[in-house]
């Protein structure tokens, strides 16, 4: 499959559900998209949607090695995650440390824009708080996401966007959302998350930059209008 000549995007965690939807959307409009995956068995899945696979383990590589994968990119997306079956330790090594590593590599490679896929609820652990009724592993996940946000948002010379979706579903996209620095808890189809991610990448690369942290759930506002307001 031939790859386009539009924006060059590298997605860390390229085989994740949102990442695959984002990769397909970007490639279908002519962007040059690469996905970083740990498992070589996932290479074919990415190729099938027009995304080049870069096989690299974000828990064992260095920023210098990763920077080589990012040369010439217009933007990077952190969509990796330790996954629901992982313990608290891997929430830190993947959801925090790998996100920070990607930012280090992006700076070293001269990539101008970085989009971090985070999560609603991270404010509940701010200041060391432990949210009531939340188990230890999910609390560790929220702490890791918050630490990643704080690190990348403090970077000079890198245009950073943070997107915090609500509960993710596999429902068909609606094209209608609530998107703002703070929204009430709710759910949102992964396909709508992917569409918002692509639009935010456009804004981060070409401007005007959106608000640095945005929360996203399903809603009544057409996606384009919601994006224009932020």
Automatic annotation (TrEMBL):
Domain NAD(P)-binding: residue ranges: 13-202
Top-rank lineage group of the source organism: Bacteria
Gene3D superfamilies xrefs: NAD(P)-binding Rossmann-like Domain
Pfam families: NAD_binding_10
SUPFAM superfamilies per the UniProt record, alphabetical: NAD(P)-binding Rossmann-fold domains
InterPro entries given in the database record: NAD(P)-bd_dom (IPR016040), NAD(P)-bd_dom_sf (IPR036291)
Stored PANTHER family: FLAVIN REDUCTASE-RELATED, UPF0659 PROTEIN YMR090W
Protein name: NAD-dependent epimerase/dehydratase
The organism's taxonomic lineage, starting at the top: Bacteria, Bacillati, Actinomycetota, Actinomycetes, Kineosporiales
